[in-house]
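Problem 12. The chain below contains 316 residues. Write out its predicted structure in token notation.
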Amino acid sequence: MSVKVEIFSGFLGAGKTQLIKKLIEEGYYKDKIAIIENEFGEVSIDGEVLKRTNTLVKEINAGCICCQVTGDFKESIIDVVENCNVDRLLVEPTGVAKLSDIKKVFNEKELKDIAEVEKAITVVDAEKFDLYLTNFKSFFINQIKNADIIILSRTQNISIEEVKRLEEEISKLNSRAIIMGRQWSNTKSEELIPKVFLTKDRGILKEKINFRKSNPSTRSIKKERNEESLFESFALKIDRDVSKEELLSKFNFIKNSFEFGEIIRAKGIVNTKNGKEQFDYTLSEINMQKIAYRGETIISFIGTNLNKEKIKKFFS
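Solution.
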């Protein structure tokens, strides 16, 4: 019997890790689970958050999961399935992975008999939908079009009318997907992601999903690789104490400057006066929370055309 797989997709900072953490903490999964979590960069920040749930987490840190579909990704799945005695596997690819690429991997001969995709879930940041659609259209639309369930995050920060508009826009891109626009804090996991649900054509979602085989042209493959290569990341060790106000001030300054490149997301674990805190920054928003962590304090920057030396000097 093959292991059931759930894929959690979503652009950088959408809230994939927090959704998985919510599901685990609320007891959504009754069977034995493991997580394969891919960081785009040199440090594993999200993995530390997930490990606090006492769940097996296997991490891939050497770049983008979509560039490793014939290597580390498949090897990690095989390793977990064969050696970890789990019933269900949660896969969280990096925010700049195309969901279609991840799904195709599970049709390859090494995996199709041992792992079976049950559903693909895409998390969409409701506050940044239009921004990401404009600036990162290829990745963003691919993640939406290939999802079975689409869950809006941060809907508590926008109006009910805006939520309805987003649901309509998303439905135009993927008419077969179930779209959930409820606030996470007011919604139980079983209501956010029903374990048995109906698709819009009133047919029950089949456990086994068959993907069409495709033979993309060399030109289209080259184009996708060029798009992926636009993103880069690097890690910076921070030994001193910092505050939320300082981080937000620095990132806001960088956002309005052309000297640092374009930072679209940063995350890390830093020392503060209150102890170690984990933070996430996406464009103009920063969230911080205390974390039990004994490792090095590091910030990971993700973006395009990054001026690493300039960023190092600015944060040192």
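Discussion. Residues 62-70, 198-226 have pLDDT under 50 and may be disordered. Students who got a different answer should revisit the alignment rule from Section 12.3.
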